[in-house]
Amino acid sequence: MATTNATAPKGAPKKQSKGFTGIKSGLSVIACCAVIAVCIYLFGFGHISNFKGAEAATAQFSFLAEGDFEPANLMGTVYKGGFVVPIIWTLCITVVALAIERFFAIRNAYGRTSLTKFVADIKVALNNNDLAKAQQLCDAQRGSVANVVGATMKKYKEMEENTVLTKEQKILAIQKELEEATALEMPMMQENLPIIGTIVTLGTLTGLFGTVLGMIKSFSAMASGDGGADSSALSTGISEALVNTASGIATGALAVIAYNYYTNKIDRLTFSLDEVGFTIVQTFSATH
Question: Using one digit for the tens of pLDDT, what is the confidence trace for 181-194?
Answer without folding.
Answer: 888 888 888 888 99
